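Support request from a user on the community tier.

User writes: "When I paste my structure tokens into the form, the page sometimes reloads and wipes my input. The last time it worked, I copied everything first. Here is what I submitted, just in case something in the input itself triggers the reload:"
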């Protein structure tokens, strides 16, 4: 039989699966034609008849078994394609909601911070503003979760060690709350002392770990043990996983073993879909935890392996590719007078009026000379009339988007500085813009300190 092994089928991507199904359907048609042809091969002599008949039934029986096997394989691959398409559709839906939500929330936070800047110290209204900002930050966290589902979150990745993330987590308020709410919960660690590094976002790995443990604590339904362990591993052949393809190479493995109730196979197949754990399995929480885990692991080019114990409990293993680079850059925000400008000229380009007004107000109060336009085309006309020290571009706009505007701006001034500020964007367009010379990407909604820090650093760059 020409084709792929059982393990190899597990790791095919969608295009490979479609191609394999077409190949199998073609083979089935050929087998049917061959069977009809063999039916006409019975000879007239008794000896030849019996010999040919034996071969006929042997071959037909073998072909029938292969047809059954191929049909089963086709059904399995179709299920995997359906699952992948469903996850992609849910991600696109979440991304659309997050995009609109980010623009609305950016306006709310922006106006609140402008109001806060106008209040005198000790003004009783400041407490109300701070409460509103705190609520907005909670909403921002939820939107960030939705963006993570789309795999288009532009959180910078750095060289990190997963052991450090785990050590921080086991001392965190989240875990303390879990232990308090679940009597008899014991969380142990078994960390590889020489664990290799990975390239990722510590905050996302932390969130993935916290979300997974929150679900497992619910599954335990009573006292029990959770063991978090790490190890280095070399993968030289396919390993059974959810639906992610794993290439040969070096990985670190983050494993979480738990005791208690196991996850039934019918639930395991849909465990990582948004809201499935809440709506179907009845697990407390937002219902996004496992979907976020799935999205975060995919965003880090890793994969998840789930093994359920026959007598209860189970183990989730997260494989992440190692990185042998050395971290040389650490980022942090500036504060106070450090973020103030000295009259440098800035052009804000955004097709949403509230966004232009907010950013113009923030930057003006920080000491910059700010102009604003509503489109990429208007920005180019402005740049033909006068030079600016910095462009701040929204990524998604009607007509010329942020990338197109930057390319045209560089034709006018080859040393034009620019940053991109957007709540949701096509990942490859942002990456392309950064590769072409855009200095920074800042995600909406942003704080005054965050934007002030990015602008200050961009203006210091010599292009």
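"...and here is what came back when it finally went through:"
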């Amino acid at each position: 039989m020409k084709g792929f092994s059982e393990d190899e089928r597990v790791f095919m991507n969608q295009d490979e699966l479609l191609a394999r199904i077409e190949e199998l359907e073609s083979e089935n048609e050929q087998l049917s034609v061959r069977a009809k042809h063999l039916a006409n091969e019975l000879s007239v002599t008794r000896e030849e008849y019996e010999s040919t008949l034996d071969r006929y039934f042997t071959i037909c029986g073998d072909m029938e078994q292969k047809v059954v096997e191929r049909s089963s394989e086709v059904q399995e691959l179709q299920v995997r394609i359906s699952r992948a398409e469903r996850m992609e559709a849910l991600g696109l839906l979440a991304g659309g909601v997050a995009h609109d939500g980010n623009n609305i929330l950016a306006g709310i936070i922006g106006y609140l911070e402008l109001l806060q800047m106008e209040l005198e110290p000790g003004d009783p209204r400041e407490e109300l503003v701070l409460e509103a900002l705190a609520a907005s930050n909670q909403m921002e966290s939820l939107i960030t979760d939705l963006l993570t589902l789309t795999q288009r979150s532009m959180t910078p990745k750095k060289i990190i060690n997963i052991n450090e993330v785990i050590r921080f987590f086991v001392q965190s308020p989240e875990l303390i709350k879990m232990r308090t709410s679940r009597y008899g919960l014991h969380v142990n660690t078994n960390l590889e002392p020489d664990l290799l590094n990975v390239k990722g976002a510590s905050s996302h790995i932390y969130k993935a770990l916290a979300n997974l443990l929150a679900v497992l604590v619910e599954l335990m339904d009573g006292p029990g043990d959770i063991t978090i362990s790490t190890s280095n591993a070399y993968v030289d052949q396919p390993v059974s996983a959810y639906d992610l393809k794993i290439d040969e190479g070096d990985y670190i493995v983050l494993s979480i073993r738990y005791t208690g109730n196991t996850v039934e196979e019918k639930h395991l197949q849909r465990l990582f879909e948004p809201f499935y754990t809440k709506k179907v399995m009845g697990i407390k929480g937002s219902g996004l935890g496992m979907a976020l885990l799935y999205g975060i692991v995919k965003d880090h080019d890793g994969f998840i392996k789930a093994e359920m114990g026959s007598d209860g409990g189970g183990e989730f293993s997260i494989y992440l590719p190692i990185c042998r680079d050395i971290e040389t850059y650490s980022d942090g925000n500036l504060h106070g007078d450090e973020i103030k400008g000295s009259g440098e000229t800035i052009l804000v380009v955004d097709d949403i009026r509230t966004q232009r007004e907010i950013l113009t107000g923030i930057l003006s109060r920080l000491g910059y000379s700010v102009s604003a336009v509503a489109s990429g085309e208007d920005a180019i006309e402005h740049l033909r009339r006068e030079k600016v020290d910095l462009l701040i571009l929204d990524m998604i706009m009607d007509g010329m988007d942020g990338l197109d505007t930057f390319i045209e701006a560089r034709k006018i001034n080859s040393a034009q500085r620019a940053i991109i500020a957007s709540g949701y964007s096509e990942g490859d367009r942002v990456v392309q813009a950064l590769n072409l010379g855009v200095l920074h990407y800042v995600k909406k909604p942003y704080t005054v300190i965050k934007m002030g820090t990015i602008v200050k650093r961009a203006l210091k760059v010599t292009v």
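Agent notes: The reload is a front-end session timeout and is unrelated to the input. The chain has a mean pLDDT of 76. The chain has four domains: 6-86, 90-149, 158-321, 336-460. Escalated to web team.
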